[in-house]
Each structure stands twice: as C-alpha cells, then as structure tokens.
Amino acid sequence: MAQYVINGGRRLEGKLRVGGAKNAILPILAAVLLTERQVVLHDCPNLLDVEKTILILESIGCKVKREGRDLIIDPSTITSWVIPDCYVREIRSSIIFLGAMLSRTGKARITYPGGCEIGQRPIDLHLKGLRQLGVLIDESNGYLDCVAPQMEGGIIHLDYPSVGATENIILAAVRAKGRTVIHNAAKEPEIVDLQNFINAMGGNVRGAGTNTIVIEGVQNDFREVEYTIIPDRIVAGTYMVAAAITGGDVLIDNVIPEHVQSIIYKLREAGCTVHVQDSCVRVKGKYRLRAIEHIKTLPYPGFPTDMQAQFTSLLSVARGTSIITETIFENRFRHVPELVRMGANIRIDGQTAIIHGVRSLKGTTVVAKDLRGGAALVLAGLRAEGQTIVENAFYIDRGYEQLEVALSGIGADIVKTNG
Ligand SMILES: CC(=O)N[C@H]1[C@@H](OP(=O)(O)OP(=O)(O)OC[C@H]2O[C@@H](n3ccc(=O)[nH]c3=O)[C@H](O)[C@@H]2O)O[C@H](CO)[C@@H](O)[C@@H]1O
Ligand SMILES: C=C(OP(=O)(O)O)C(=O)O
After folding, report:
1. How far is CA 198 from CA 161, 216, 244, in A?
2. Does the interface ipTM go beyond 0.90?
3. pLDDT tens for residues 291-344?
4. N or C: which end of the chain has fewer CB within 10 A?
5. Going from the N-terminus, what domains does the chain have, and what CATH number goes with each?
6. Which residues bind UDP-N-acetyl-alpha-D-glucosamine (predicted)?
7. Residue 78, SS3?
C-alpha cells in the first residue's frame, strides 16, 4: 500500500497554490442532480473522494468528463435513484445525495454512509429535517428507502449546526413547495458555496453563512451553469502549519483569508509571523514556537476540527504546555499514539490532549488512521530528525492533491512509494 517517505529537518521556503475545496465540491457534485442542463465546474481538485463521487454520478446515469481542472457534467440522463452501496460505504459525504436525489426524482435509496474513523457520525439530524419536509423514510435492513411525492417547505430547527444536515436539507428544499427556514444552521464557507452554486442554476437560497437559511422552493427548469469551487481552507491551513513547523517561510496563494482567520490567530499566538495580502497568506515559522494555552475545536467560525491534528503536531515541538480540546468528533486523537512513537510527549484525557512540547521528534514508521491525522504525521515527519514513513497514504489522498509534489516544490524531501 502507498506510503509517504520523508527525510525531515528541511526548512520549507517558496510559494504554492491551493486548489478547490473537497468539502465544497462534494455537495456541489450532488447538487448537480437538481438540473437537467450541463454543468461546468472549475478548479476541481484531483482527490480520491472526488473521483468516487464522480463514480456515483456515473453509476446513476450522469455523464462526466474531466478536462484538466474542469469537470463537465451532463445530468440529463439519470437512470436510477439508487445510490450504489460500494461508494456510500467508502465516503461519508455520499449521504448528501439523499436530498439532491429526492429533489430530482421524488425518491431515493441509499445505505448508511461510511467514513467513521473519527466518530460515530449519526445521520439523525439529516433524517429528522427531511421528514419535516414530508419525506417518508423507511429504515430497514441497513437501507434508507425514501419517497417524497411532494415535499412541502417548513421550519426546521437543527439541534446542532451539522454541516451535512444543513446541506441535505437545503438540497431537498430547493424543489419543495413553499418556503423552508433552517434555524441553527451550520455557517461553514462550503455551505455558502453550495448556496451560490444552487442560485447560479436558478435556485433561491439565502442566508448561508449565518445561522438562519431561507430556501424558497422553485419549480421551473434550471439553466446551464459554469462555477468555480472555493479554495480549500483546510489544505491552506495544513500548508501554513508546514511552514510553521519547519521554521520556514511560505507564501500560500488562492486563499480566502477570512476562511482561515482562526488558524491565523492561533499561528500568531504560537509566535509565527503571518502576513495577509489579497488572496495570499505568507507564514514565517521559527524553529521553536511557543505553546498555545488552549485550542478548542468549534463549528465555523471557531477553530476547525479538520485542523486539530495538524496543530497537535505543531505544538508537540513548541516550548511549553498546550491544551487542545476536541468538541466535534469523539474519536479524533488517533494520530496521538503515532506522534508519541516519534518522541512527542502528549497525554489524552477524554476529549483533551495535553501536549508538553519536546525539542525534537525522531523519524520512524507511523500509520495514518484518518485523513487529517495522516496529514499531521506528514507534518511531524517534515520536522523530525531522520526518516519518517507514513503508511496508509490513501487516507491522506482523500483530501490532499499530490501532497508530495506540493511539498517537494517548497523544499521538502518527500516521496510517495508503493510500500
Ligand atoms: C464532507 C464534509 O463537508 N465534511 C466535513 C463536515 O462533516 P459532517 O457534515 O459529517 O459533520 P457534521 O457537522 O454533520 O458533524 C458534526 C457533529 O454532529 C454530529 N451529528 C451530525 C449529523 C447528525 O445527523 N447527527 C449528529 O449527531 C456528528 O457526529 C459530529 O459529532 O463537517 C465536519 C465538521 O466541520 C468536518 O470535520 C468534515 O470535514
Ligand atoms: C472529516 C473529513 O472529511 P469527511 O467528512 O469527508 O470524512 C475531513 O475533511 O477532515
């Protein structure tokens, strides 16, 4: 199986560009089902999760063509409302097809989604919201069989601002009769991107980015659309940490600075210099950064859970003791035992990691257990003395495009091999 081999200790310097966001393109690929006209998406990242989502679209009859970083999709020819199990089990975000498929065909069949390395990740809020729009859901033998002859708008109060539930409800409500209001909606930038994409096709969604989203059901045909995916704030954040942890100086291009505000604040707190200009963020690290008193993961605009693991690596070599509390997912410290194998001094107490910074990490063989935890191990390897091998590279490839090429371009010694 593929692995990353890193010879650590090199200071990273130079410039790199961030591509379109995984968490934006995945729901947008589902939203494509809302139209029967051609959709052209620009800056589509070449990621495992994107490839698998394209396979879902193809398996239900859509035609998808990749030309460089563009995807050209013809969704006019849907032949099935059944989302195939094999993809659903592999990628969690496939559950978003439920709302989109219901909007398009009034029915959908899907199994429960996978991707549960970081927690249980139930879908109760998705289903509760859809039921409130009039969807009849039969849950038996591990399948969700859904029918919605005519969805009706309604008022939905989410018990928690779940990103996926917010997206699923928006997708279902776009074609419902009347107005839907989602209270306590998630405010993540990827939801704003979904709203903008839907509106570009002819939908009527407003309020994304705030905690109240209003969807006016639209019955008429949607138009052809060309749309550019927003840059990936988590990939940007990961490169920012790569600069910081190696004491480097890296300019990251194609970033929306507002989307990485909480990451910038924490990097500055650790002693990094961060300059922001237009769509560029420049991060200068130091060999020994300062500990951060407390990082608590929170829904946007709070500190993202998807950056928690990378900061655990960073703080493992900072001067002093840092505390990180993970409040979103219950099993998201699986990178910690691997970091400890590299010489980090970290103790887990429930949902909190207590990190006593050490002067150096030592390269060894470690195993990625999930996407961001895997990226965190690569970051630790960039800093460590000697050679680090990160096994299970496929986890990392779910969310990072040619990570070894990007990092080599700014001075890292990293290759991907077939173990
Ligand atoms: C493809 C995608 O966009 N993935 C992101 C999305 O995941 P995802 O959409 O799965 O995350 P959610 O916001 O839904 O989950 C947040 C929390 O709510 C819980 N929950 C969620 C739904 C539900 O019906 N019931 C329930 O209890 C989850 O178990 C979790 O503890 O947001 C997460 C939180 O920012 C990110 O880490 C993921 O990268
Ligand atoms: C948890 C993540 O993704 P997913 O929701 O697709 O598993 C992530 O991007 O860090």
Report:
1. 20, 12, 37
2. yes
3. 999 999 999 999 999 999 999 999 999 999 999 999 999 999 999 999 999 999
4. N
5. 3-19+231-417 (3.65.10.10), 22-228 (3.65.10.10)
6. 92, 121-125, 306, 328
7. coil
